Amino acid sequence: MTYRILGNGNGFWRIVGRGLGVIALLASVAIYILGATSDPRLQSLRELALDISAPVTEFVGAPMRFMRRAANDVSEFLDLASNNKQLREDIVRLSRWREVALRLEAENAQLRALNKVTLAPRFDYITAQVVGNSGGAFTQSITINAGRAQGVRPGTVVMDGTAAIGRVVTLGQNAAQVVLVTDASSRIPVLLQPGDIRALLIGDSTARPKLQFLSNPGKVTKGQRVLTSNHGGVFPKGLPLGTVDALVDNVVRVAPSADFRQLEFVRLVIERVDLTIDSDAILIVRSDGGVEQEKPDNTEEDDAPESRE
Amino acid sequence: MKALWAFTWALVLVLATSFLAIIVSHVALEVGPVSTPWPKFGIIIVFFWMLHRPDIMKAPMIFLVGLAQDLILGNIPGAGMLSLMIATILLDRMLPPLRTMPLVWRWLGFAAFVGLTFGLEWVLTSAARLSMQPLDLVFVQGGMTFLVYPVISVALRQFLRIGRTQRRAL
Lengths: 309, 170
Fold this sequence. Notes:
The complex is a heterodimer of chains A (309) and B (170). With 309 residues, chain A is α+β, with helices and mostly antiparallel strands. In chain A, 35% of the residues lie in helices and 26% in strands. Chain A contains 4 helices and 14 strands. In chain A, a hairpin with a 4-residue loop joins strand 4 and strand 5. Chain B has one domain (2-22, 40-160). Chain B has helices at residues 2-26, 41-52, 59-73, 79-90, 95-98, 103-129, 136-159. In chain B, helix 2 (41-52) packs across helix 7, helix 3 packs antiparallel against helix 4 (79-90) and helix 4 crosses helix 6 (103-129). The chains are: A alpha+beta (309), B mainly alpha (170).
């Protein structure tokens, strides 16, 4: 019995069908090998698929998202009494924190004024809507409706309201794919505070990613804040990710701060490129400890005296 | 000429339904690790057309649908596509008798197809990432895909009037 899936029929068309089937199978194997080795040649194919599918997904998903919102509204209405009680408790708790924050803000402003420090904003933010979801079993990623045209760059960090949730891996013209911190391919250098413990946050497709390569495992305690550490240069330093949740079988698990289920809009953190030093000036440290800046030889100012001579 | 038009129309229909099924799998209703995985509608459509239009849903078409699914859903390119192709080749002999059988038997055939496809994709993804991927989400998504099949199959058969009247849509 022949394999019909690879082509059947009579004579010439049978050979053509078989040939196409075998070519398709070999091409599948080749693409899998390229995909498994993260070959950059597939990147343009991914970007093309993203640009075509994202607007269609946004359009097709609109009525489904509307129905989901309506269902959420009904559910929230039914939980009104308990939510009210919870909110009152939160207001009392947050009022105390507000006082602390105001005091620290005033103290910070005073110290900055004393030091005459003027900090330029390091980041710009873009808000985007989540239009697509990978589905869950093998990959945990989302598709957003902002891309190269909106200033997004590969590796851009994505946050929900408060915490980092992932980074851009594939970039189209008006859409981008974001791998979540819980994805099995996600590796983020982090810092645990208090304690300044360095570690690597590794996603494993579970709700609680794990911490590995801890610099000081003995000092890890439940409730420590997990922040990005900027090691490797992908994530800016100090973005919150979550808190240390539990230590099970010598594996430290982290509870992400982001509420993934309610993820509808996200914020992209764009590092401002105009703040980078682009001149070739050299800083010289003298033997007496003082410093001076030397201009490079190829500038016009340095060339001018020579030309006069 | 009429036969050529009919074939072209069927080809467009198969492509359009396959693309739409992948897009519906991609719609973000719940996101992240605690959300319930969506069914993979692309697999359902591939199996449906393998039964009803085996002359169109051949290896090149499965290649296209599988590649589109992998790229749109953000999986490892080739893992889903290759698992679909291997599963169809392995179950090729099972399909002809299923075409004339009642829905329950077709559903059982689909169980074998979905089990094989998800199993192979799990193996290929684990091999590509050099670590065993969690199986629980695979079972949940595979189970949901299996459960949704009769609804999609009956709806499509009704809509396209397959096996209902003499005057068939395809």
